[in-house]
Amino acid sequence: MRIALFTETFLPKVDGIVTRLRHTVDHLQRLGDQVLVIAPDGGLKEHKGAKVYGVSGFPLPLYPELKLALPRPAIGEELERFKPDLIHVVNPAVLGLAGLFYSKTLNIPLVASYHTHLPEYLQHYGLGMLEGLLWELLKAGHNQAELNLCTSTAMVQALTEHGIERVDLWQRGVDTEMFQPYLANQEMRSRLTQGHPDSPLLLYVGRLSAEKEIERIKPVVESIPNARLALVGDGPNRQNLEKHFAGTPTNFVGYLQGLELGAAFASADAFIFPSRTETLGLVLLEAMAAGCPVVAARSGGIPDIVEDGVNGFLFDPKDENGAIAATQRLFANPNERETLRHNARREAERWSWSAATQQLRNYYRAVLDSRIMLAAA
């Protein structure tokens, strides 16, 4: 198959969507498919054998790490050269509108996928009054697709309830070779704790942005005697968070990748994830693969991954003391913590990127076969 993949974000940016896409592109190419990635220009021309067509853009005012790349006629010319069998638009918003347009004008089957729960983000940026309008725009875009994929059952339900049609589940995936418990080491633990490796170590990995609600970790740290917090990642809310956590033993580590990131997960005592806006929470699977016990909000796609008391702890996101109680329970019961570590790794081993990509290919085939059947009727 020849697949044109439109995305609003791609390498060198680091986030859960990019992680899924780079593994997907890699596995599609390995299986003999040809992929053209159309994304905001990040200086990359190729990824794992797939051509990356960069479209120039400008930084998003509220989120400078994200670039807005506007559709332009040259994209249509690139598509006509590539001759895709199918267009897959990831989070159709700005650049993705070109994917919707050319799927119609060139009569190419369209698949869309939903990875960022934008309506929930709005309230964190003071734009909550626009939620209804945004759902209408999402519905108008997604309902042009022959199939809409979500990465959790909660998002399948949310999109269906808001009138988006032909919705199905694209299963989770995680790199269980990159993230493993044996990567735990004292050197990384000392680095994350700023020279206090014997102290309890709480970890957060992900974007430092308002919708992640990272400030809610502060009372959790303060409730655990001698605890240290490491925040791995970066984003537009970093300065505000540095002020919020001033006076606490919090280490703003910045980005880590590859084996360093794997070692960070494996070396921590608990992974704290307060976000209530996750469509999936891929980073939770990475923590679990590394054997790091998870404490997360019972919200969005997270309950698809974390089974409370079995492979992690969930807390009521409306309970201000929920995360504190769950984390205290984790540290109070060393034997239970070891059981959670073991079960977390076992759960992660069920979800390979190869299986997730094969499922995606089956969806692609079904869409193409359906188009052939309609043409023959």
Descriptive labels:
single chain; 377 residues; alpha/beta; Rossmann fold; eight-stranded mixed β-sheet; six-stranded parallel β-sheet; 14 helices; globular
What does this molecule look like?
The chain is α/β, with parallel strands linked by helices and 377 residues long. It folds into two domains: 197 residues, Rossmann fold, CATH 3.40.50.2000; 168 residues, Rossmann fold. It has 14 helices and 16 strands. The strands form three sheets. Strands 3-4-2-1-7-8-9-10 form an eight-stranded mixed beta sheet, sandwiched between helices. α11 links the parallel β14 and β15. The two termini are 23 Å apart.
CATH class of the largest domain: Alpha Beta
Rg over C-alpha atoms, rounded to the nearest angstrom: 21 Å
Known CATH architecture of the largest domain: 3-Layer(aba) Sandwich
General form: globular
Task: Give a short synopsis of this structure.
The protein contains 14 helices and 16 strands. It is of the alpha/beta class and 377 residues long.
Layout of secondary structure:
Elements: E1 2-7, H1 16-30, E2 34-40, E3 46-47, E4 50-55, E5 57-60, E6 63-69, H2 73-82, E7 86-90, H3 96-105, E8 110-114, H4 118-121, H5 131-142, E9 147-150, H6 153-161, E10 167-169, H7 186-192, E11 201-205, H8 218-223, E12 228-232, H9 238-244, E13 250-254, H10 258-267, E14 270-273, H11 282-289, E15 294-297, E16 313-315, H12 322-332, H13 334-348, H14 353-376
Parallel strand pairs: 1-2, 1-7, 2-4, 7-8, 8-9, 9-10, 11-12, 11-14, 12-13, 14-15, 15-16
Antiparallel strand pairs: 3-4, 5-6
